[in-house]
Amino acid sequence: MFEFAELGNKISRQEFDEREPELHAGLLAVQRKLRDANFSVVVIVSGVEGAGKGSVVSLLHKWMDPRGLTTAAFWDETDEERQRPRYWRFWRAMPPKGEIGIMFGSWYTQPIVDYALKHAKRSEFDQALERVRHFEDTLVDDGTLIIKLWFHLSKKAQQKHLAKEAKEKNIAVSPFTKAYARSYDRFALVSERALRKTDVRHAPWHIIDASNARYRDMKTGEIVLERVTQRMSEGVIASGRKGVSAASLHKADEPAVLSTVPLDLKFDEIRYKTRLKKYQRELYQLAWKAHQRHIDTVAVFEGWDAAGKGGIIRRVTQALDARLYRVISIAAPTDEEKAQHYLWRFWRHIPRDGYHTFYDRSWYGRVLVERVEGFAQPQEWQRAYQEINSFEEQLVEHGTLVLKFWIHIDPDEQLRRFRERETVEWKRHKITDEDWRNRERWADYELAVSDMMSRTSTEIAPWSLIPGNDKRYARIEVIKMFVERLEQALS
Amino acid sequence: MFEFAELGNKISRQEFDEREPELHAGLLAVQRKLRDANFSVVVIVSGVEGAGKGSVVSLLHKWMDPRGLTTAAFWDETDEERQRPRYWRFWRAMPPKGEIGIMFGSWYTQPIVDYALKHAKRSEFDQALERVRHFEDTLVDDGTLIIKLWFHLSKKAQQKHLAKEAKEKNIAVSPFTKAYARSYDRFALVSERALRKTDVRHAPWHIIDASNARYRDMKTGEIVLERVTQRMSEGVIASGRKGVSAASLHKADEPAVLSTVPLDLKFDEIRYKTRLKKYQRELYQLAWKAHQRHIDTVAVFEGWDAAGKGGIIRRVTQALDARLYRVISIAAPTDEEKAQHYLWRFWRHIPRDGYHTFYDRSWYGRVLVERVEGFAQPQEWQRAYQEINSFEEQLVEHGTLVLKFWIHIDPDEQLRRFRERETVEWKRHKITDEDWRNRERWADYELAVSDMMSRTSTEIAPWSLIPGNDKRYARIEVIKMFVERLEQALS
Questions:
Q1: A398-452 pLDDT tens trace
Q2: Contact between chains at A169 and B317 (C-beta distance less than 8 A)
Q3: CB-based contact (8 Å) between B269 and chain A?
Q4: Do B28 and A336 touch (CB under 8 A)?
Q5: What secondary structure, in 3-state letters, does chain A show?
């Protein structure tokens, strides 16, 4: 596919100088309009060595306003990045809505380099590209405009450019640059496969002939201008991929999964205390072992209002050294969070190797409260199942232990607890009008929970349904499960 | 001072059980009120090994709502932290207003350990404590409540506790714990000095006898409850240290420093182009050398509206590899930023070793626009000079090159540029009503700039006054200065 880019396109200096002011003004104008738009723009700058990617990035910075424009480079991985799933560093670099993020290097770099240098198998390469595709779908569905630029040079042109660049800057051609040049053919082959497999209608590749710098620059500016202008004209509401039908959800006429939970299970005080002590002691030691072995845990706590999530989390954290865990309570998003994909606020708290993050409510809010209350559009919460599965898959692939608990109680028990909260002084703050409103929609939530279970209880990250009518039983059950799963992960 | 804590205070189980519910309810209530308050609470948990600091932290988590409560531990430094000034990791962990942050380990740990283990001299220890004191002043002045808890055990009690803990948890006493116990006396001596030197009225130490766990826990809860309640009663406005008089600013009756800038300096097109090319080439190479040598740069660009800051920054960044720098344009703070000390939003972008951050406007906004427009109270902007000097000192101590440019133009030149902006299509967005309003307050700003220069142009981080009437001259001047300072730092 690259040969079609080698057309020897050129632009004279005169022509460039004539056309530049208009392009410059156009980019500034569209960037200004973008500020109020409900989407972000991601520009991927990639291509062969020597094609002048750095110059292109500089030029984009020259043409546009630095406010609302950032460049992220992914060459220099820190340990905070290495100790988390691969895509954490990309999520971390995502521009907020209304802004442009230039990705100098991107999620394409490592798959291409690994496969080209034969550090990865073809199947692994294809799998990595599948992940890329899914990641981009996720962004595009959220409204993000992805502009993918590939700067191409023929082998001959590349050699010429690298030599010229070295001379101009009065430096030796850097060693890795030389290595890349030597393996030009291999890289071309691999890159072509990468581009072909990820060249989709909603996130197409633009291959730009980089042999003439002025042509390359003008073309880049024009593509960015055109794509942003076009996306802007599609309006704020029409976000996401076109023609993507929402997953058709069949009515849950099978018995709801929640009705299978044996809510009559109980522990008396003595049994509870003995077991709690036993499991907390075990957990304490396992958590230290996990720390030494660099295993991290992400635990999700969901359940009905007043199901006792907080009490359970506290029994778990009591057993742990405070240095090893963090509890993230999900409340209203901050404005920095609102300006991002809904998964961003969860990605940002993913623990490093050896640590634990407990989410008191989680990304499942998307398919629970946001679905039931209509905060998310049907297509948004329907595609969320896949997005969530992919997210958790990435955690597990990285070596993270993913635990998901649904704490179940029945409506009677909830009512009893609501009433108790209203009467006990220091529990009063726990009960709000919202709780009563949610309670009225029990059936809707039950359907949402059923759908969630059947779609996101995966082999690698299964849901644990915890009978919660007896608080003691629930606490023991969760902490026991935690101990068992950690033991398993450590063996 | 510690011996006075060894009073053998005890609380019986019965008494504890009787008093706990009230304390629990009180903490929850005050935490709820805190949510709407305009300050944050920092609880420092420190003390001797074996005193049960971890249990105390767990208990605070048990007593309080996890929403609005986080614990930060500082034992495990990442490279992203190591590659920045020491306090970056503390700034990063600061709780937002309305929340409580427990510091398990803190800015005290390293100074104490370093000096106790004789890795640091006494003068270095005292200097580190001076930094601690200034840091805490900075937080308190911003309204933050700092509760400093020191858990004390006698040598005998410590040995008993460590042995008991090891037995209970069925683990060997960890090697570093043993080492600490061996050097009990030395640590006691050093800690005492640390506490004495930082025990100030607005951030006093609470020494808690930890030999009886119930006493320790009850006392901790009571202190936290009492201090937060008391701080709350002081109201939202009365922030900061009491009795701290604002630095008295004498009228700038000496000739304004800005009048000394030779604004008639000019470069013609040819001279400009030749020099620009020369310095950009030099800068490119120096930046790579700096990267290899792990030297980072923080450059601040301030100046009148339309002084040409953006154009200058672009000429500098053009010369750099896009992977090595970031431009931070200071606009309105996000709500996460608003909930923190004003320096927090600048700390968060401090580069790692080997990288450059350019601030297009900066922390100097505090003593410029915030002063002139009245967004900051007089005591706020007056104490900012010291806060800023300390901030920059920390950067320089870490090895960061700090460059500060004031781009100066005169009122006539500004008027000319404003008019040009109004007429040239792609420059029109650059001029707003606010610019015209600011212009009317030229004299106020001039006074603020004068004060800023005289108070923050330090030996380690001097201001460079750049004549800006001729854009070409200004650009060359800045890039040349950058080259010279980098060369100097590299030699």
A1: 999 999 999 999 999 999 999 998 888 767 777 888 889 989 999 999 999 999 9
A2: no
A3: no
A4: no
A5: CHHHHCCCCCCCHHHHHHHHHHHHHHHHHHHHHHCCCCCCEEEEEEECCCCCHHHHHHHHHHHCCCCCEEEEECCCCCHHHHCCCCCHHHHHCCCCCCCEEEEECCCCHHHHHHHHCCCCCHHHHHHHHHHHHHHHHHHHHCCCEEEEEEEECCHHHHHHHHHHHHHHCCCCCCHHHHHHHHCHHHHHHHHHHHHHHCCECCECEEEEECCCHHHHHHHHHHHHHHHHHHHHHCCCCCCCCCCCCCCCCCCCCCCCHHHHCCCCCCCCHHHHHHHHHHHHHHHHHHHHHHHHCCCCEEEEEEECCCCCHHHHHHHHHHCCCCCCEEEEECCCCCHHHHCCCCCHHHHCCCCCCCCEEEEECCHHHHHCHHHHCCCCCHHHHHHHHHHHHHHHHHHHHHCCEEEEEEEECCHHHHHHHHHHHHHCHHHHHHCCHHHHHHHHCHHHHHHHHHHHHHHHCCCCCCEEEEECCCHHHHHHHHHHHHHHHHHHHHC
